[in-house]
Amino acid sequence: MGHNKVVILVTTGLLLLSGIFFYTIHEDAVEYRAGVSEDVIVEQTWELPDALKEVSGIAFLAPNKIACIQDEKGTIFIYDLESSSIEKEIEFAGSGDYEGIALDGSTAYVLAANGEIFRIQDFINEPVTEAFRTSFTSENDVESLFFDTDGDRLLLMPKEKGLQSTEAKGIYVVDIKAMEMADVPLLELTFKEEMFNDLKEDNPSRSFYPSEIARDPQTGNFIILEAKKPHLLMLDSNGDPHILHRLDPNLFPQPEGLTFDDAGNLYISNEGNPATIHRVKIKDK
After folding, report:
1. If DSSP codes are grouped into helix, strand and coil, which group holds residue 18?
2. Which of 46, 74, 43, 80 is nearest to 62 (CA)?
3. Which of 1, 45, 146, 283 could cross-link 39 (Cys pair, CB 3.0–4.6 Å)?
């Protein structure tokens, strides 16, 4: 066989393989987008400044004001929705990997990925910071933090492996008086429900990575945000998975923040360039 024929055959083979690869990618993308939930509707969007391009957590503070944190700086940013600008920056610690924020009146709680919780009292005026350890480590990569008024407690959930099992992920309670975490989870997700089948993994827990947790103030139901393949998981009143919404990755490229305002409006923040905060409406909660 001549040299030219060999080159032609090799080139044809490579082109064929490339075509199959891109066709498969295209088909997967089409299939994925076909499953995007039409029940999660973006009502309004705010583009965040560069200082918050890695926004990793949000918490409703007051009308038109949201407290934000970002991955690397030990700073709470107060973002004004009305003026679309940062109105205040509050330093509480040095550089780190900060993933979640929760508010209880004048006290802020910030969660680091290694499970450390920072309590910042009187954080708006004269912040005083204390740090507390939990049973989580950097291997768990904890991003979800929520202050639950029902019991005056903090709720945490690991993004990576759980404490007791690699196949389940639990919601854990921290008592805010003792700042100690219970060993047994309040709720535990096993991902055995049919709704998780489209995650296409032998172990769906390795395909669902919680990035934030909250409770709907109107229903008390839990809502869990997932960032890698953006989803919004709704739990019913018993804490059982109820609906799994697949989010549009164009609108939610890396959703990591979740909060409700006093009127029950839901806000989701996204890392990116630009980073965004969406106010969203869910048709079926």
Report:
1. helix
2. 80
3. 283
- In this prediction, residue 8 carries a pLDDT of 61
- Specify whether the CB–CB gap between 19 and 62 falls below 8 A: no
Query: 272: burial class by Cβ within 10 Å (0-12, 13-18, 19+)?
Result: middle
Could you tell me how far CA 10 lies from the centroid of its own chain?
46
8 A C-beta contact, residue 58 and residue 275: no
Rounded to a whole number of angstroms, the distance between the first and last alpha carbons of the chain is 66
Chain center to CA of 276? 13
What letter represents residue 11's amino acid? T
Unique residue bearing structure tokens 């990925």: 113
Q: Are 48 and 79 in contact (CB under 8 A)?
A: yes
Burial of 151: CB neighbours in 10 Å, binned 0-12, 13-18, 19+? exposed
Is residue 34 classed exposed, middle or buried when 0-12, 13-18 and 19+ CB atoms within 10 A define those classes?
A: exposed
Strand partners, 156: 145, 172
Length of the chain: 285
Give this prediction's pTM: 0.87
- DSSP string computed for 182-203: -SS-SEEE---SGGGGGG--SS
pLDDT tens per residue across span 141-191: 999 999 999 889 999 999 988 888 778 899 999 999 999 999 999 999 988
CB 92 within 8 A of CB 123: yes
